[in-house]
Design brief:
single chain; alpha+beta; OB fold (Dihydrolipoamide Acetyltransferase, E2P); de novo design (two linked rop proteins); 2 domains; five-stranded mixed beta barrel; two-stranded antiparallel ribbon; 36% helix
Length: 241
């Protein structure tokens, strides 16, 4: 088996036998990787808590046919220790990790931009409002995956906006001509907030009111889950203010 090294974020862990775990990691260079961390559940494990969810780690792995094997693991940042004591931040972080795993459907497919977004979101969750950070991450993650919602021009015909209607199946804002039945009619402030979060313009985003944030969160979640074709288990647990 060949040996390689990469840094990554641990997205998920699963028990394997009495002492081992399978870890799912989003890496910088090798996309999503699943690997066995042997003996990690023993008290004397050399990995200890290094390969827990939310951990940013430097890994050395043996490449395997189905599962790789963790040879070394060094902690770079343990975001779990920073998030676990705050319910809102922890659940938002859980939704970030689940989304990252779902958007990398193929293992080992390069996903550098998504990896950087996950690192940035986990860092921001320790500093900013978790609901805004989560929505910003979801919008940007959808964008790098090719699912960005149209927020200004019509998603169907490209007519210059702004437009008042938003259709999840159509892909975002739609003009009067293209508006399908059942489209939402969000306030202009809601669409403006989504655009600010997509662009990383935090000053106006943090100045938004609670209702605008809730409305934007609903549209973001609906758009994401439409493209994923099923809901995220963690998203209903996220506490919105």
């Amino acid at each position: 088996m060949s040996l390689y090294r990469d840094e990554g974020v641990v997205l998920r862990v699963q028990k394997l036998g009495e002492a081992d775990r399978i870890i799912t990691v989003l890496t910088r260079r090798n996309g999503r990787v699943r690997a066995v961390a042997k003996g990690v559940r023993r008290t004397r494990s050399k990995f200890g808590s290094t390969v827990e969810p939310f951990s940013h780690v430097d890994l050395q792995l043996y490449a395997g046919r189905n599962l790789d094997i963790v040879n070394q693991a060094e902690s770079l940042t343990s975001y779990g220790a920073l998030l676990v004591g705050d319910y809102r931040r922890y659940t938002a972080g859980t939704a970030v990790l689940e989304t990252a795993e779902r958007l990398t459907a193929e293992e080992r497919e390069p996903a550098l931009r998504l990896f950087l977004l996950v690192i940035g979101a986990l860092r921001a969750l320790t500093e900013r409002d978790p609901s805004l950070v989560l929505d910003a991450f979801l919008l940007r993650a959808m964008s790098v995956s090719g699912y960005a919602p149209a927020l200004l021009d019509c998603a169907r015909c490209g007519a210059a906006g702004p437009h008042r209607a938003f259709s999840v199946p159509a892909g975002g804002t739609v003009c009067v001509t293209c508006r399908p039945p059942g489209s939402a009619s969000p306030a202009p402030a809601t669409l403006a907030l989504m655009a600010d979060l997509m662009a990383g313009d935090w000053d106006p985003a943090e100045a938004s009111d609670a209702r605008t944030r809730r409305d934007a969160s609903g549209l973001v979640a609906a758009h994401l889950q439409w493209h994923l074709e099923r809901g995220l288990r963690s998203l209903p647990l996220v506490e919105r203010v």
